[in-house]
Every structure is written in structure tokens, then in C-alpha cells.
Amino acid sequence: MKPIATLTLSPSLDSATETDALYPEGKLRCTAPRFEPGGGGINVARAIRMLGGQATAIYPAGGPTGEHLTQLLRHEGLEVGVVSTLDWTRQNLHVFARQSGEQYRFVMPGACLHDEEIHALRQRVASLPEGALLVISGSLPPGMDVADLVDLVVFARQNRLQCVVDSSGPALEAVVKEGGLLLIKPNRKELAALTGQPLETLEQVALAARALIQRDVTRYVVVSLGAEGALAVSREQQVLATPPQVKALSTVGAGDSMVAALTLKLAERASLEEMLRWGVAAGTAATLRHGTQLCDPVATAELVTQVHVGR
């Protein structure tokens, strides 16, 4: 199996609590906070480990919050590649209001990355073995723009790494323009923005995805279709996977869980159908859990057999 690493440029220490209801002015009595690692690539690495694989999480971290984040990851048995930063790692807050059943997510700005810290992250990437899969996932922090992200992707390719990118907006547009990726996972709206085409039907979605592949932007496009599942397209084929109907509790960890399963199966050289089946199953499994929790491996394995796959 190919080695896997993830790169998270704006990690977080996530705290979660519960209270009866949210209202202004008064004191809101909360439960004791629960702390979890946060950030796209970090969550992908955690989910890969949950599904039985191994991944190295590369990320910047600073201050007591950064130390706490790294402690949590090491406690989970995750291999980490940490770059120390001057700024403290951000801390996000997730609050569940029991009376309404609503979840509130307070997301803080990422810690600023300085030039020497970005260079240190590049060196971490350069130390990865040739042919490894590198998942770049999550938002960009202050001090880093899309040109820096493109430079990282180019640098990774020059070091013969295969890049999986899960991003959005200008960051996704920039890396797509550069091309040479292994896999991207846009949703329908993001794919429409990338191609400038209306995507009202699945056939239009498939044609738009194949256009990116024919331009050598990426080898695989997996288009997330929400509750409808996902469509995977390669140069040779396309596969549609539809999950069983479930009662979703939260969609927060679904995207990272899906990317984790897709990447793990890519590393195992699985077929496009198996890769997508596991990706949809893992994403669906994450929706069965509260808060920011990722896919449960037992639920994922059960859902794999229930995912309907067609061409």
C-alpha cells in the first residue's frame, strides 16, 4: 500500500459543550468541554486510522493550544509531523442546544503562518517517500494566499508525490488551474464554478468532470451530491454510488470521512467502484454521529454493503 500523509495549514483545537438553550445576556450553564483535534487534513488522517489505515498528519502548531492538539493526536496513535509556530493554534467552539436540537459552531481565524514556517512545512513534505499520497485539505490561514498553496502543490509534484485536494473557492480554482492532481472532490456547485457550466443533470455533471480529466487537471473527480451520494469519474469510466436512507444527526465530519476512505482505497489500489462505495459509506457513517465526530469503522463496514452502485 502506498504511504499516506495529510497537510493541514490551519489546524484547530476544537472544544464542544452542551447547554439547555442559547439566549443573550444571561449566563449559559454548559457541560464540561470535550476537546478534539480539528482541521481538514488532520481529520482525514484520523479517519484513515479509524478505518484501519495509517497516515502522517503534517501541520503547524503553536502555544498551549497547539501542544494540546498534538497530545490528543499522539494519544490516538497518529504519526505527526509538527512545525512549531510563533502564533498559538486557534481554538474553535461547538455548542449543542438541547431544547432545540440545534448545533452552533464558532470558528476562529487560523493562526498566521510566517515565511519560515511555510518553508518548514515544505521541508516536511519533501521528506515524504516518493509515490506517497498527500492529502491537502482545509482552509488557508492568514499570512498564506492561493499562490503559496499552488507553490506547495507544485513542490509536492516535483518531489513525486500524488496530491489529493479537498478545498473550495479561490484555493480550489487555483490548484485546478495548475493541474496534475490525483483526485479532487468538489460538490455540484463547486464543479459548476470550476467549469462555468450549468449542471442540472447527472450527465452534465459527468461531462464537466470528464472535461477536467481530459485537460489533465486530475486523474479522478469525485463529485459530492449530498444525500444523493456521489459520482466518481475517471478517464475510462464513471460510477454513481447512492447511500441508504438514514437519519442524519450531523453532517460536520462527513466530508473528511469520505476523503479519508477515498484516499485509503486509492492507496490500496482499489477499483473506482470500491473506492467510491467506501467513500460514500464512510461519509454516511459520519452523519450518524453527533457533533464533529468522524466515521465509525463498524458502521462504515455495514453501510458498504448497503450502498447502491451503478454506472
UniProtKB/TrEMBL annotation:
CDD domains: FruK_PfkB_like
Pfam families listed in its UniProt record: PfkB (PF00294)
Residues annotated as domain Carbohydrate kinase PfkB: 19-297
Origin superkingdom: Bacteria
Xref: InterPro entries: Carboh/pur_kinase_PfkB_CS, PfkB_dom, Ribokinase-like, Tagatose/fructose_Pkinase
Family membership: Belongs to the carbohydrate kinase PfkB family.
Record-linked PANTHER family: 1-PHOSPHOFRUCTOKINASE-RELATED, ATP-DEPENDENT 6-PHOSPHOFRUCTOKINASE ISOZYME 2
Protein name in UniProt: Phosphofructokinase
